[in-house]
Give the backbone structure.
Amino acid sequence: MYEGLKIGVLASGRGSNFQAIIDAVNAGKINAEIAVCISDNEDAYALERARKNLINAEFIDPKAFQKREDYDVKIVETLKKYGVGLVLLAGYMKLVTPVIVDEFHNKIINIHPALLPSFPGLHVQRKAIEHGVRFSGCTVHFVDGGMDTGPIIIQAVVPILQDDTEDSLATRILAQEHRIYPEAVRLFAEGRFSVQGRRVIIKDAPENPAEFLVNPPVRE
Ligand code: GRF
């Protein structure tokens, strides 16, 4: 258990995953405080969600920095100012450099709308449909230096339907994201993870964690 864990959220857009985590904290499901939301986008609705919930909201303008590393030095400074012990990427559109990754080793978590290691990167719902895979889903994972490459924490499977569009699939995947991201944060806050190579071992997980963690798909 991390007593007094403070969370810092990096978000660039609408922040619906951020909201799911706010709700879980407010409901007492996650034993932590969200100390700050930082965005590279002044108009990110995520910042508005932070303000509405009396969470510190900081816009840091990338244009004010020449190099990506300089920007990340400022991000690290800000996270430290708020005493952050866990960094959550929630629709954060910038690749984090080693400046952040080295400072918060195995303390940065991301959510990705595909079953990694398939379909890293962007527009992955469309890519999954176009590739013809029968199942996609979402992945919560630790962040290392690569793009969507770090150790996998939780995944949820979502079938791809014959008439799915990028939007319809994204909507069903998002419903699962909102379920598994707060769950992963809860487990982190309870100190339940250890990382062994690429594997994340969950302490006191049920005998078959896959069955426990992968729910049937949510359908409209
Ligand atoms: C989500 O699909 C997430 O998986 C991806 O970016 C999107 C962010 O959505 N990393 P939101 O801002 O949390 O609503």
Notes: The chain has seven helices and nine strands.
